Amino acid sequence: MKRIKLSKKQTIAWRYLEDQETTEIGYGGAAGGGKSWLGCIWHIHRRLNYPGSRGLIGRAKLAALKESTLITLFKACADMGYVAGQHFRYNGQDHTITWYNGSKTILKDLFFYPSDPDFTSLGSTEYTDAFIDEATEVTLKAFEIVNSRLRWKIAEFGLVPKTLITCNPGPGWVKDRYILDSENKPIDLERYQKFVQALVTDNPDGGFKALYMEQLEKMTSDYDKRRLLYGDWEAEREVLNPFAHQYDPKKHESTQAVFSQGKQLLIMIDFNLTPFAVNFGHMWRDDKGEHFHIIDEAQIIKGSIPAMIDLIKAKYLNSLPNCLITGDAMGNDGDISQRDNASFYRQLQRGLRLNDSQVRVRSNPKHKNSSSDVNYLLANFPDFKINPETCPNTCRDMRTVQCDAFGQILKRNRNDLTQRADFLDCVRYGINTFLKKWIEVHMKRRN
């Protein structure tokens, strides 16, 4: 085997890949940092140093894996002195590589298909280790399912489970798990987790580095340049067709939007399995005019009504006697897990000890109509504010959620934070219930 020179960052990652404590290793942060190269040479090293081992190489789409990652793997083999047909054989029919010592590489499509939400396509195969390339393109569940399959001969080899993920910066579970929390503060990693940030400047190939940096510098998109050249995880993509196009952070975001014990509490909920999202706010009128402030937000990652009840009590128990709840009309559907088929709202009402008049749920507004209402309100309501410190996800949704040419909110990819829109939905439901009358009266006066 020929010796392969690693960059300083790749060397740091390699130590984690071969230690006895780390089980999740992230590597990346910008384009050109040698992500796929590191994954491929580590994978080859594992297959040949542990005869009879099995390694998974996965990517969101098998076609992309074959057109990119697999080509890198074959190049790495050649550079390391391994020859196809002699040291390994590739079977394009079953997407496997068999090595001369009995080890196997299994290539897997990790895309989330609605017809296979539990990734049964992975079968019952056990693996020794896994390499997931471009991990921001796959779902957290795919990653977790792969992790659960790392059992093959691990004890026999004296190893611990290892999953290497590589990626460029982007919204989603990788950022949430390893980089920044919902308030953009660095994640405090567990002892078994490591993430090595690598930029194109860390690439050991000087010629490649110079050429690639020149290409990246030519990019006209500030978002892509910040991500791919500078490895900026806080970069937000350009919003071409924003849902809340009248939203202005300078006008609508204020740390003065805070809880007041003397004001009625409004609770606005959006129900999704992951997560339940909730906004808390106040609406009042005084000698300065009318006010609507969103003061706080929260989410229940694995949607649970008991957890939502506990959260609301812990935060605002003393404000519950006269609070009002609204939100997603789907929460009025019967819940078969309840003996009496009680809806989510009925369960909340019971758990929080509210009377019927405190639950006010209207039919969900159509996206196009809701956009008109939201933007009219943002442009005309005297004092609409969201606290950016306590409601970072809500502020992000208001800035970044987009809609298509027909006015439908883009929600195709739950892996993309800008397409979840959970907290925007909380705002929409709140406006539809508590401010719809103001909009109608104000528009009528103007006309």
Largest sheet: 8 strands, mixed
Percent in strands: 15-25%
Task: Note the run of SSEs as H and E.
Answer: HEHEHEEEEHHEHEHHHEEEHEHHEHH
| Architecture per CATH nomenclature, i.e. the level-2 architecture of the largest domain | 3-Layer(aba) Sandwich
> What would you call the structural class?
alpha/beta
Distance N terminus to C terminus? 80 Å
CATH topology annotation of the largest domain:
Rossmann fold
Topology:
Layout: H1 8-18, E1 24-29, H2 35-49, E2 54-59, H3 62-80, E3 88-91, E4 96-99, E5 104-109, E6 129-132, H4 140-148, H5 154-157, E7 163-167, H6 173-179, E8 193-198, H7 206-217, H8 222-228, H9 249-252, E9 266-270, E10 276-286, E11 289-300, H10 305-316, E12 324-327, H11 344-352, H12 367-380, E13 384-386, H13 392-400, H14 422-446
Parallel strand pairs: 1-7, 1-8, 2-5, 2-6, 6-7, 9-12, 11-13
Antiparallel strand pairs: 3-4, 4-5, 9-10, 10-11
